[in-house]
Amino acid sequence: MPLIFRSMTVDADKKPKTGSTGRTLGVRTDEIPVDDDGRVLPETGGMSVSPNWRALAPWRIPKRLSSKSPGACGKNADECWRHGSGAFEIGPVNAQLFLRPNDTSHGLVEPAHEMSIAEYRSALELTRDDWVIDED
Fold first, then answer.
1. Residue 65 pLDDT
2. How far, in Å, CA of 39 to CA of 41, rounded?
3. Which residues contact 82 (CB under 8 A, 6 or more apart)?
4. pLDDT at 29
5. DSSP for 60-98?
């Protein structure tokens, strides 16, 4: 399982908040094409992640971390989260999801096979308990 990072808002239960924004555990419909039947396909897009939190876009890194990452200007309500432990290379995140890096500092968590957008979002949400805050 590849090591991935994402900046997300913390929910009341101290887990990543789920949703369909760039600051939640989920995916926006502009990040992956959805066909007329509400289906999504592998290798077409997905939830953005990075190999470490310092590789996130500056507007995704909480401003409070600017001493560790100059230029950080993200919302302080967000945390940097990690998931997995392996190399940042193409591979399964779980049975329903896989990582497809598109360069050394960014990748996409995509559906592993054709599924509905609702199934894809549910698969992302099922990883919720596996994310850990990591801002070191």
1. 98
2. 7
3. 3, 4, 5, 53, 131, 132, 134
4. 83
5. GSBGGGTTTSTT--B-TTEEEEEE--B-SSSEESSSSEE
29-57: pLDDT as tens digits:
899 999 999 999 999 999 999 999 999 99
Strands (E), 1-136: 4-9, 39-40, 47-49, 78-83, 91-92, 97-103, 106-111, 115-116, 132-133
Give Dmax over CA atoms of the chain in angstroms: 47
Model pTM greater than 0.85?
yes
Task: Quote the tokens at residue 1.
Answer: 């399982």
Task: Measure the CA–CA gap between 117 and 90, rounded to whole angstroms.
Answer: 21
> How many other CB atoms are there within 10 angstroms of residue 73's CB atom?
13
